[in-house]
């Protein structure tokens, strides 16, 4: 299945035993799944007007253990506490928290103070205990992604990095609860109402799906439930305990319009997790919190478009047109964005506000080169790579098998996103070859790089070619960029970044990337400055617009004269929803 907006879906599990490719592989451990949807009652508690979006829209929520009050933070960095039964939301002062880039509420302490996660421009994650009077006490800090949960019993503070679960004990030191396996990464945690169990969402480096593990407070593994499909990305998945025996998480794919989001309540002792509700195709589900059988969750609708700005520094972005556009392909020489519009297998190529001459359903655009667009489309023999010129004339450049494409969103990339030389991906089982290809004749050239691939279900690399054709840049849903110059690879890891999904060149020393989990913000696009002598890159986290928290980006692409930028954007119009009956 092709990826959309850099967050993929390996498979969607609907019944036990139905996996990818017809395999038979069900949930592991004592858990099983009973796919019987049961309608629950859901109603919005906090909504956002069109005028106040995105800064006033909620991005995190926590429900007090007695379910009397809840707290939430907004994309604009404000913190509110509100009675669940109704009443005015009171804004809390957060000035005592040091220069936050992002702000998330992680839970309530028994005295009504809040556990608040923040990030700084120096790539420090900070967990603070904030009172209604505005005073803050630093509980714990880390130089890596931090998750936190507060035990409803005993006020225990549990924190997690990607590799370790630990309790913050008096004096601020850590008592390790569990170190996960080297190939695993923690993506979220939640504590049962009785304070005896920790649920942790974990991913594996060679798998596209995630699992929820249940652990005792002493670190004993009690069971595992596989989640059915990817949801929203790093650190923003719903994971909450409904009661002492059941936790809830989402399946489906929040980044792909073709699949519904499914809410599962997974049993701990009886081994009978079941589908409790199916949420809309166009929905988004983020962080959540539960108490007394009530779930509060960040939820909302999404819309897709290609958006542009007059210069790369301009904000906000504006829609290129009203079409449901999915991704940017490039720019024409006269300054019109070229992009894909429509669902997969039904896409057409747009040039500004008009269809590209000769485009037809199923054209998946790869690159703009000169006054032509390179595309690929499904045919009876596999995939055809074609050139479509400005007048609508088609020329076949290559025929490749489905196995050699491995469902790449874009198979061909060109220098600086608009000129020869170009390169085409040729996928083998354990690596991807990047080969030169003539954008006029289709003739193959030299091998630029052979990039190792961990697994056929693992991350999908995304590559770009510098304007002078001398450097290949590759990202693969990690924080690492691989640069290849003169056939020699060199890797650079960006601090404060969870994942890089797509990358483009604007100049030989300037790149743009779409990213996730950037200094605590779920999504962002970054301007990267490249030092060609050392192959090191830098970016300024202070330049991140707050609205990034609710925009999923893909392939930011600068125009040929560098006066405009176009980006594929999925906007998340969030609200806080109360869910009963789980």
Question: Brief overview, please?
Answer:
1% of the residues lie in helices and 52% in strands. It has 582 residues and is an all-beta fold. The chain folds into two domains: 20-302 and 573-580, Methylamine Dehydrogenase, Chain H, CATH 2.130.10; 311-563, Neuraminidase, CATH 2.120.10.30.
CATH architecture of the largest domain: 7 Propeller
The number of domains is 2
Summed up, the helix count is 1
Number of strands: 46
Could you give the topology of this structure?
Layout: E1 41-46, E2 58-63, E3 69-74, E4 79-83, E5 90-92, E6 102-108, E7 114-119, E8 125-130, E9 136-142, E10 147-150, E11 157-160, E12 164-168, E13 174-179, E14 184-191, E15 197-204, E16 210-216, E17 221-226, E18 239-241, E19 246-250, E20 261-267, E21 274-279, E22 283-291, E23 294-309, E24 318-319, E25 325-331, E26 337-341, E27 348-351, E28 354-355, E29 364-369, E30 372-379, E31 382-388, E32 394-400, H1 402-405, E33 412-415, E34 419-427, E35 431-437, E36 444-452, E37 462-465, E38 471-475, E39 480-485, E40 488-493, E41 497-507, E42 510-518, E43 521-531, E44 536-538, E45 551-558, E46 565-580
Notes on the protein architecture:
The protein has 582 residues and is an all-beta fold. The chain folds into two domains: 291 residues, YVTN repeat-like/Quinoprotein amine dehydrogenase (Methylamine Dehydrogenase, Chain H, 7 Propeller); 253 residues, TolB, C-terminal domain (Neuraminidase, 6 Propeller). It contains one helix and 46 strands. The strands form eleven sheets. Strands 1, 22, 23, 24, 45 and 46 form a six-stranded antiparallel sheet that branches. Strands 2-3-4-5 form a four-stranded antiparallel sheet, with no helix packed on it. A hairpin with a 4-residue loop joins strand 16 and strand 17. The two termini are 31 Å apart.
């Amino acid at each position: 299945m092709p990826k959309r907006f850099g967050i993929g879906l390996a498979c969607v599990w609907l019944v036990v035993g139905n996996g990818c490719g017809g395999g038979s592989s069900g949930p592991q451990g004592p858990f099983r799944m009973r796919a019987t949807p049961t309608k629950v009652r859901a109603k919005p508690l906090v909504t956002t007007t069109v005028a106040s979006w995105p800064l006033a829209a909620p991005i995190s929520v926590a429900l007090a253990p007695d379910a009397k009050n809840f707290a939430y933070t907004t994309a604009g960095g404000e913190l509110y506490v509100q009675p669940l039964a109704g009443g005015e939301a009171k804004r809390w002062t957060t000035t005592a928290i040091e220069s936050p880039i992002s702000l998330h509420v992680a839970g309530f302490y028994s005295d009504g103070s809040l556990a608040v996660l923040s990030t700084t421009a120096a790539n420090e994650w900070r967990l603070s205990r904030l009172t209604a009077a505005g005073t803050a006490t630093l509980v714990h800090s880390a130089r890596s992604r931090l998750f936190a949960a507060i035990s409803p019993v005993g006020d225990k503070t549990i924190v997690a990095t990607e590799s370790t679960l630990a309790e913050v004990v008096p004096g601020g030191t850590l008592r390790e609860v569990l170190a996960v396996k080297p190939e695993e990464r923690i993506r979220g945690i939640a504590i049962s109402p009785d304070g005896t169990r920790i649920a942790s969402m974990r991913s594996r480096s060679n798998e596209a799906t995630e699992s929820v593990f249940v652990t005792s407070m002493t670190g004993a593994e009690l069971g595992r439930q596989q989640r059915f499909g990817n949801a929203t990305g790093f650190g923003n998945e719903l994971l909450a305990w409904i009661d002492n025996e059941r936790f809830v998480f989402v399946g489906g794919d929040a980044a792909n319009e073709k699949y519904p989001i499914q809410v599962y309540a997974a049993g701990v002792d009886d081994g009978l997790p079941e589908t409790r509700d199916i949420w809309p195709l166009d929905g988004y589900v983020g962080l959540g919190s539960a108490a007394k059988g009530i779930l509060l969750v960040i939820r909302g609708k999404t819309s897709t478009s290609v958006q542009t700005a007059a210069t790369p520094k301009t904000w906000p972005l504006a829609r290129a047109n009203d079409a449901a556009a999915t991704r940017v392909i490039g720019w024409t020489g006269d300054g019109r964005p070229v992009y894909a519009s429509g669902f997969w297998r039904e896409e057409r190529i747009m040039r500004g506000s008009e269809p590209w001459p000769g485009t037809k359903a199923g054209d998946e655009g790869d690159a703009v080169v000169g006054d032509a667009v390179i595309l690929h489309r499904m045919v009876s023999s596999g995939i055809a790579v074609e050139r479509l010129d400005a007048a609508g004339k088609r020329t076949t450049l290559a025929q490749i098998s489905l196995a050699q494409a491995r469902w790449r969103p874009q198979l061909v990339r060109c220098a600086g996103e608009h000129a020869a030389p170009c390169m085409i991906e040729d996928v083998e089982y354990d690596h991807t070859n990047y080969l030169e290809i003539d954008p006029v004749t289709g003739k193959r050239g030299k091998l630029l790089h052979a990039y190792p691939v961990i697994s056929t279900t693992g991350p999908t690399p995304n590559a770009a070619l510098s304007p002078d054709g001398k450097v290949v840049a590759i990202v693969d849903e990690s924080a690492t960029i691989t640069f290849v110059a003169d056939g020699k690879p060199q890797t650079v890891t960006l601090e404060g970044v969870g994942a890089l999904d797509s990358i483009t060149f604007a100049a030989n020393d300037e790149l743009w990337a779409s990213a996730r989990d950037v200094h605590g913000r779920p999504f962002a696009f970054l301007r990267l400055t490249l030092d060609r002598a050392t192959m090191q890159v830098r970016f300024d986290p202070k330049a991140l617009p707050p609205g990034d928290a609710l925009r999923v980006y893909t392939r930011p692409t600068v125009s040929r004269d560098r006066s405009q930028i176009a980006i594929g954007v999925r906007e998340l119009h969030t609200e806080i929803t109360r869910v009963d009956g789980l």
